[in-house]
């Protein structure tokens, strides 16, 4: 399957893809260089106190660090000059051939430069290439250049996190009444799903233009904030999703995760709600990225460290503006419940198994999330990943990039149905996408609404203020 509409790419200088190549990627690459400089500087202070093998190893690490800095700087230089994308070097990790085959195809059609390549491909390629720079060293293999950024932003979400923990605690004291009251459950479900949706508004690759005040505003919770944001949800399938969830019995929900930090926290709260407060779900599986990805996406170490951070009272800055102590107690209670869920397998992280799950897929199922492939042909192109989701009671795709991959990141008219846009994947398993709009592609919106917004000059497709809740059930056949 392939759409007859062309992909978004930077040849359209009014699109967000153009702005991305011109402004956003250079900032992100400069951040990686900065990270490496700082790290090398700190490490070099230790040189004097070391000797023997340790000293030699550190010296090698510093040389390798300088090597990565040179590669990233060269990449940034070439990007600005619209040079060709180079092949991903054979680094022993996943998807090298996939990327290079796609690149060869683009070369044939002369779309293999930074300002001509399809946006979705080029952006995935960029993070995969960065990964190769690190993996091809001896001492930087496990380094995540975005790790500190993720942790620091998470720390700044303390106020919202403690608020939510307190809400969940209050809910806990009437757990049984809530469970038995369908009306109450539904109201809570709407709050939870919206919290999880807007949790996506704060990813770090967009933060190159959002202020701290903007972020806090996006994270604010509670009825009023949600009512105010309701009009920004341009497609709202909350009703049918809830109806669907009510048909599950001891069901499994899968989260194809997006960002670490506050968004992951809201995913876990939503997961906790489904398991603890509803009779419908008894297992939640989370699917992370196996390599640093789009700055803020969740990797397995991020997932693990989230639990440690939330359980540590000193993690948050002291000026969080809620009754800190009771908030902390509530948070602790919630996180210890999550930890026991992890231990019991109620919550789990889908990390690689060595044996490929059938089909002709040579790589691990999880590697699919860091390929550049749209999800249209998942069943044939990534049978391992497809098989893991096929039996799910509901697969929740979080965030913008997952949405771009679901719809192929092509120029669908905005009123195309979601079902048509996700191609052959439609109906294969119950599928929910929770996405705040951060890229041009949009489907499932009324024609007059889309046209009015396009004509208004408002950047409704890309600034993260609008959102889409899109659901499709499993087809009956
Ligand atoms: O457009 C902004 C952007 O960085 C896109 O490049 C990408 O699709 C998206 O945001 C990442 O957002 P999310 O974390 O929601 O997938
Ligand atoms: Mg992301």
UniProtKB/TrEMBL annotation:
Catalytic reaction equation(s): beta-D-fructose 6-phosphate = dihydroxyacetone + D-glyceraldehyde 3-phosphate; beta-D-fructose 1-phosphate + H2O = D-fructose + phosphate
Assigned keywords, A-Z: Hydrolase, Manganese, Metal-binding
Family: Belongs to the damage-control phosphatase family. Sugar phosphate phosphatase III subfamily.
GO biological process terms, semicolon-separated: DNA damage response
Organism of derivation: Hebeloma cylindrosporum
Any one Gene Ontology cellular component term annotated for this protein: nucleus
Cofactor dependency: Mn(2+); Ni(2+)
GO molecular function, one term: metal ion binding
Protein name per the record: Sugar phosphate phosphatase
Its EC number(s): 3.1.3.-
Domain notes: Subfamily III proteins have a conserved RTxK motif about 40-50 residues from the C-terminus; the threonine may be replaced by serine or cysteine.
Enzyme type, top EC level: hydrolase
Domain Damage-control phosphatase ARMT1-like metal-binding span(s) in chain numbering: 20-452
Role, per record: Metal-dependent phosphatase that shows phosphatase activity against several substrates, including fructose-1-phosphate and fructose-6-phosphate. Its preference for fructose-1-phosphate, a strong glycating agent that causes DNA damage rather than a canonical yeast metabolite, suggests a damage-control function in hexose phosphate metabolism.
Pfam families noted in UniProt: ARMT1-like_dom
């Amino acid at each position: 399957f392939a759409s007859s509409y062309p992909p978004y790419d930077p040849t359209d200088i009014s699109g967000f893809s153009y702005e991305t190549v011109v402004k956003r990627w250079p900032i992100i690459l400069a951040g990686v260089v900065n990270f490496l400089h700082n790290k090398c500087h700190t490490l070099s202070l230790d040189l004097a106190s070391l000797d023997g093998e340790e000293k030699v190893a550190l010296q090698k690490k510093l040389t390798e660090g300088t090597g990565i800095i040179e590669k990233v700087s060269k990449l940034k230089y070439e990007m600005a000059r619209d040079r060709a994308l180079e092949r991903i070097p054979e680094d022993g990790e996943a998807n090298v051939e996939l990327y290079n085959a796609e690149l060869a195809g683009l070369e044939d059609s002369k779309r293999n430069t930074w300002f001509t390549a399809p946006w979705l491909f080029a952006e995935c390629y960029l993070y995969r290439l960065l990964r190769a720079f690190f993996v091809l060293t001896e001492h930087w293999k496990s380094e995540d250049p975005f790790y500190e950024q993720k942790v620091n932003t998470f720390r700044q979400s303390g106020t919202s996190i403690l608020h939510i923990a307190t809400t969940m605690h209050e809910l806990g004291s009437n757990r049984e009444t809530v469970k038995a009251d369908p009306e109450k459950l539904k109201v809570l479900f709407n709050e939870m799903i919206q919290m999880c949706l807007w949790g996506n508004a704060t990813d770090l690759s967009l933060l190159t233009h959002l202020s701290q005040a903007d972020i806090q505003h996006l994270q604010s919770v509670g009825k009023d904030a949600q009512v105010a944001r309701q009009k920004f949800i341009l497609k709202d399938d909350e009703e049918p999703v809830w109806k669907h969830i009510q048909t599950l019995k001891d069901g499994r929900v899968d989260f194809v995760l997006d960002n670490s930090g506050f968004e992951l926290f809201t995913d876990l709260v939503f997961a906790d709600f489904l398991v603890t407060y509803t009779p419908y779900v008894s297992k939640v599986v989370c699917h992370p990225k196996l390599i640093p990805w789009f700055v803020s996406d969740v990797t397995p170490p991020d997932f693990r460290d989230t639990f440690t951070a939330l359980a540590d009272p000193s993690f948050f800055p002291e000026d969080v503006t809620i009754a800190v102590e009771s908030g902390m107690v509530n948070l602790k209670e919630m996180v210890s419940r999550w930890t026991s869920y992890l231990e019991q397998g109620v919550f789990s992280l889908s990390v690689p198994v060595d044996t490929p799950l059938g089909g002709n897929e040579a790589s691990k199922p999880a590697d699919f999330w860091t390929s550049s492939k749209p999800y249209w042909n998942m069943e044939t192109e990534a049978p391992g990943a497809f098989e893991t989701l096929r039996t799910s009671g509901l697969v929740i795709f979080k965030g913008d990039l997952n949405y771009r991959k679901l719809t192929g990141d092509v120029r669908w008219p905005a009123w195309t149905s979601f079902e048509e846009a996700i191609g052959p994947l439609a109906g294969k398993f119950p599928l929910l996408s929770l996405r705040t709009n951060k890229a041009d592609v949009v489907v499932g919106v009324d024609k007059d609404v889309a046209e009015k917004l396009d004509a208004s000059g408002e950047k409704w497709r890309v600034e993260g203020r609008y959102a889409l809740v899109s659901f499709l059930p499993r087809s009956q056949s």
